[in-house]
Amino acid sequence: MPSDNATPGSVRPGGRTARVREAVLQAAGDLLAERGFAHLDLTEVAARAEVGKTTAYRRWRNSTGLVADLLVDMAEQSLPHADTGSLLGDLTANARLVAKTLTDPRQGRLFQAVIAAATCDETAAAALRRFYDIRLTEWSPCIDAAIARGEIPDGTDARAVLTAVSAPLYYRLLASGDPIDDEAASTAAAAAAQAAAAGIFTKDAKTPTAPEDS
């Protein structure tokens, strides 16, 4: 039986406990998407999930515990990395997956809520970092394969390449409001692939210096 002192999301339950977790995380995700983190209430989540309030508080303790476990579940449920045979193909698949997630009516709002929570709560921030660590680790073999094929230099930082793919899409979601469409996804992937091929993301790459004024 999992310890009551375990960090939320650190123990994978089975049986009835797994069903309770699934129901609670579904309800938590729905409420996050509907109202945002500021209005996420564990008692209301428990009621919507038809789970005892005492059970919910014993397992998740508070709203940030729920967010942490929800992010673990989202990482576990996300699709595995692509293997298209080329770096551009793999990065395009990654960009399209990110774009699909961010434009989903529920998932997009959920990510906005989680990111907002992470800006003001260290537990939520740590959970968000763990989520992206899992996803970057999952997709890093695409970069290793591209190095092996000779498409990009040895020493290319896989995480830097993958971050360069998704960053423009998150910027559109959180800042500019520009469309997150297939053109945006393809452009982000192509830019990251070209930069990787040029050696921009090698760990010993030198930062370009700005030209001096004449």
Instruction: Please outline the major beta sheet.
Output: none
Count up the helices: 9
Characterize the overall form. elongated
Give the number of DSSP strands. Answer: 0
Low-confidence stretches: 1-6
Order of helices and strands: HHHHHHHHH
Structural class: mainly alpha
Q: How far is the first residue's CA from the last residue's CA? A: 71 Å
Helix content: 55-70%
Q: Tell me the Rg in angstroms.
A: 20 Å
Mean pLDDT across the residues is: 88
- Strand share of the residues? under 5%
Molecular structure report:
By secondary structure, the protein is mostly helical. The protein has helices at 15-35, 42-49, 53-60, 63-77, 87-103, 105-118, 122-149, 158-176, 182-197. Helix 1 packs across helix 2 and helix 4 (63-77) packs parallel to helix 7. The longest helix has 28 residues, at 122-149. Mean pLDDT is 88; it is low at 1-6.
